[in-house]
Amino acid sequence: MSAAPPTVPGAQTPVVVGKVSGVFGIKGWVRVLSHTRPRDNLLEFDPWLIHAAAGWRPCRVVDSGHSGGALTVKLDLAETRDAAQVLVGQEIAVQRSQLPQLPAGQYYWFDLVGLRVITGSGVEFGHGTGLLETGANDVLEVEAVGKRLLIPFVPGAVVEKVDRTAGTIQVNWDPEYQ
Question: Which of 45, 85, 130, 154 lies at a 20 to 30 A Cα distance from 141?
């Protein structure tokens, strides 16, 4: 997961949802790596924020397409290949208020990063640093003292409670599995 991006003055911290991965063609189009599922959900957001050395800049998607399985977009920031080249490597973000509300018991992955991971009896494993998609179920990455733990993110069976207010994820996980 990405480190927390700089904030936009007077706004919430933007949520990184993708990255410009390359240029496409000669008319200012770029390839985009989307962190949304499905990846085309990235196109539902307007405006985007592009992170550059000077900070976050708003932009709009003028057109979009696909090439070789990659998402391609034409942004209002780039009319030429050279202008698009400047965008390569920059993160794409949106304001949190642009994200859909989730039903109770569902979380955005970035909401779980940084929470303390504990057992019901108070044994602390460390802090959540990210999640991995494995197909069968997601896996919570936990940074413990001197090691990295992987705990299945299975609500009810392994993850007993997520309390964002308290900053904790309570798990049913044997400390001996460390």
Answer: 45
